[in-house]
Each structure stands twice: as structure tokens, then as C-alpha cells.
Design a protein that fits this description.
Helix content: 25-40%
Number of strands: 16
Radius of gyration: 23 Å
CATH architecture of the largest domain: Alpha-Beta Complex
CATH superfamily of the largest domain: Creatinase/methionine aminopeptidase superfamily
CATH class of the largest domain: Alpha Beta
Number of domains: 2
Order of helices and strands: HEHHEEHEHEHHHHEEEEHHEEHEEEEE
Strand order of the largest sheet: 4-3-2-1-5
Structural class: alpha+beta
Largest sheet: 5 strands, mixed
Length: 410
């Protein structure tokens, strides 16, 4: 198993309905177990998804102009079963439901020197003076005042959180499966509306209405309905010389024959979905477009046929390249695959610009959730792209995506 991965293999049979209380307890326990293994007394978390993982709290998305100053902050103490949460939305009952009342505190304004000093004063009542403290992120004010928190150079707590978040519990997988179901419900509504004359923004409105009616927390990736050119040079210039994708949706009206590369994701219970398909406006695929799809399907099926506990990322990329004439069937600025969970894209990353040596050292374990998203590009004739979400098992993988490839296939 690769360094940094959890030793225990997570079961991969998700329950029909997630037990959210059990999921929160198990996640917090994983964090505390990792802290004990590494000799950490207190873990301070600023990263939004790290705070969610440790505390079980999912909060409304904030205005980007305020998010940096009013961020939730978590403090996990190794010998305390419940984490502490410092939050500007303390009055929200969703915060109190999962944490003891005395573990929910007012906001910590860590972008300001005074705010850091106030936070340190609050910590003195929570942890002992000689505690080993680790953090996942920093502000400039915390850097200036770091001697108040650390006697020596601080350790990167982001690595601790990456390791515990990597393998998903059955309840986490169940949450993700429900998020995917909601996403696919929204996409079915949209696909039924695809026709010449419909605006991209109208498709977005249909999608958003459907997912929120179905119980989504948020739309975490503005829906992409990108009309793809037939040649790379017909699209916007890029620093890599590759396709410009994804591009934001506009009020452009769809035209017959447009090839749409579709991409989006939502949040359910804090967990993100990921959806990708290729649609054609107002007509059936041509023979050449069907051939693109069949080649994409061959690559995708070959990659997932070797996706199992213990496979390296390099093995997956080698299979994909072999079926694509030695080239990489994914965009230079993206990857063949990426992890999914509380972030839309998280570890592990398969086929990145970190290179083959990195991929050879990256081992995927049972309980990992990974999105496989190759592309097939046929210069002068456009291309095909789709993506599916898989959970890795001991002897293979399970596809969590349950959406057809129409109009190209079932």
C-alpha cells in the first residue's frame, strides 16, 4: 500500500440509506486515530471540506467576498470525542444538532492579527500549554503570530486529512450515490429539453430547479453545456495547446448539430457528485460520431477492467494509452481520473502532469471513489467525452453512475 494510505480497508457495500450520525462518528474517530498515530494533540482545520469532515457540519455556501473572513474553523483534540467548531453562523440549528453546545463557538477572524490572538486565547481553555498542534492551512496573520501557537516550525495537517478522507465508509458512498441520483434526475430533465433554439442558460435553470427540489445542498460546479468545435484551433487559445474546456455557459441558442460536452456536480450531505456526457442537438449521431463513442467506450471499459484494490495509477494510464495509439486520451490540464468526495476533485489523481513516476507510486485501495473520464478527440471531426464514478473494491470496482449514453448508446 502506498505511503500515507490508511491501513484499514473500508467496506464497499453502501446501505440503501446513509446513517448520517454513524457517518459523522466514524469520520471524527478516523481523524482522532490518525492524530494518535502521529503524536498530534490538537488539529486546527481551516479548509472548508476538512472542517466538514471533522465536525459533520454542512453550512450554506457564502458570498466569495466574505468567505475568507468568516470561514468556519474546527479544532479536534485527540482526547475529546467531539470536535470544536468556531463559526459565524452559530445560530443555525444544523450546527447544534451534531455537536455539544459548549463545543460551538463564535467566529474566529484569523485573517487579522487581533483575531489570531483572540483565537489563541480561546484555545488555552481547550488544550494544554505543551500540546503538539498541527494545522491544514494558514492565513498571513497566523504566519505573523505563529509563535503564539507553535514553539517550532508547524507540521502540515493537510496530509493528515488527505489520508483519512481517502477511503470512504459505506455511509459516505451511500451519500455520494444519492447525490449522483439527484444529479442524474436533473440531467434527465435537461436532456429532454435539448433542441435547437433553447439557450444554455435555460438548461441551467431547469437543472438547478430540479436538483434543489430533489434535496441537493448546492450546485458546486456551474453546469457546462459546451458547444465543441470540430478542430482545436477553432476554439479559444490555451497555454497547453489543447482543448479549451470547460467553458462557462452563456445565453447562446443551441443550433441543430451542436455537440455538447456536459459537465456539472452538486452537493448532497456535503458530498459532491460528478457528471459528464456528450449530447447532440436535434439529430442522431453520424457514423463517425458513433465511432468516436465506441472508441471512448473501449478505453473506459479497459481502464475499469483493471481498476481494483492494489492497482497503480500507472497501470491505468498504460491501458488507456495503449488503446489510444500511445497518446494520452485526456486533456493536458486534467487527468484520466480523480478522486471524489467532499471535494469535486480530490486525491487520488490519475494521469497528471506530475508524471509517470508519481503514477507508479500511487496505489489505489478498496474504498477509494474515483471518477474515470477519458476523452476521444478526432481532429477535424470533434470528439466524445463522458465520465463515470466508481468505488474500488477488493476484486474490481462498482459503477455508481446510472445514466445512459444516449444518443450514442444505452
Amino acid at each position: 500500500m502506498a505511503p500515507g494510505l490508511m491501513e484499514a480497508v473500508a467496506p464497499t457495500a453502501p446501505p440503501p440509506v446513509p446513517d448520517l450520525d454513524r457517518m459523522r462518528r466514524e469520520r471524527t474517530q478516523r481523524v482522532r486515530d490518525a492524530m494518535r498515530r502521529k503524536g498530534i494533540d490538537a488539529l486546527i482545520l481551516l479548509g472548508n471540506t476538512n472542517v466538514t469532515y471533522a465536525t459533520g457540519v454542512v453550512w450554506p455556501l457564502a458570498d466569495g467576498g466574505r468567505a475568507g473572513f468568516e470561514r468556519p474553523v474546527a479544532v479536534v483534540v485527540a482526547d475529546d470525542e467531539s470536535p470544536h467548531l468556531f463559526s459565524p453562523i452559530r445560530e443555525d440549528d444544523r450546527l447544534r444538532a451534531h455537536l455539544p453546545r459548549d463545543h460551538v463557538h463564535g467566529p474566529a477572524y484569523l485573517d487579522f492579527d487581533e483575531g489570531v490572538r483572540d483565537f489563541v486565547a480561546a484555545l488555552r481553555g481547550l488544550i494544554r500549554a505543551d500540546a503538539v498542534i498541527v494545522m491544514d492551512e494558514w492565513t498571513h496573520a497566523m504566519q505573523r503570530e505563529q509563535t503564539l501557537l507553535f514553539a517550532s516550525e508547524p507540521v502540515d495537517g493537510g496530509r493528515v486529512m488527505s489520508s483519512v478522507k481517502l477511503l470512504k465508509t459505506p455511509d459516505e458512498v451511500s451519500c455520494m450515490r444519492e447525490g449522483l441520483r439527484i444529479t442524474e434526475q436533473g440531467m434527465a430533465e435537461v436532456q429532454a429539453r435539448i433542441a435547437p433554439g433553447v439557450r444554455q442558460t435555460e438548461l441551467t435553470a431547469t437543472f438547478l430547479r430540479t436538483i434543489f427540489d430533489a434535496g441537493a445542498d448546492a450546485n458546486v460546479l456551474d453546469p457546462i453545456w459546451q458547444v465543441m468545435p470540430t478542430r482545436v484551433e477553432d476554439g479559444p487559445w490555451t497555454t497547453t495547446g489543447d482543448l479549451a474546456c470547460p467553458l462557462l455557459s452563456t445565453e447562446r441558442k443551441l443550433e441543430e448539430g451542436d455537440v455538447l460536452w456536459v459537465d456539472t456536480g452538486i452537493s448532497y450531505g456535503g458530498y459532491h457528485s460528478d457528471f459528464g456526457r456528450t449530447w447532440i442537438v436535434g439529430r442522431e449521431p453520424s457514423d463517425r460520431q458513433q465511432a468516436q463513442y465506441r472508441r471512448w467506450r473501449e478505453i473506459s471499459d479497459a481502464v475499469t477492467s483493471v481498476l481494483h484494490d492494489g492497482v497503480t495509477a500507472a497501470e491505468l494510464t498504460a491501458v488507456a494509452r495503449e488503446l489510444y495509439d500511445g497518446e494520452q486520451p485526456w486533456m493536458a490540464h486534467f487527468y484520466l481520473g480523480h478522486g471524489l468526495g467532499l471535494d469535486s476533485a480530490e486525491a487520488p489523481y490519475v494521469g497528471t502532469d506530475l508524471g509517470d513516476d508519481y503514477d507508479r507510486g500511487l496505489v489505489l485501495a478498496a474504498g477509494t471513489v474515483v471518477v474515470i473520464e477519458p476523452i476521444v478527440w478526432d481532429e477535424g471531426h470533434g470528439g466524445y467525452r463522458s465520465e463515470n464514478v466508481f468505488v474500488v473494491t477488493d476484486d474490481g470496482c462498482v459503477n455508481l453512475t446510472d445514466y445512459s449514453y444516449a444518443p450514442h448508446g444505452d
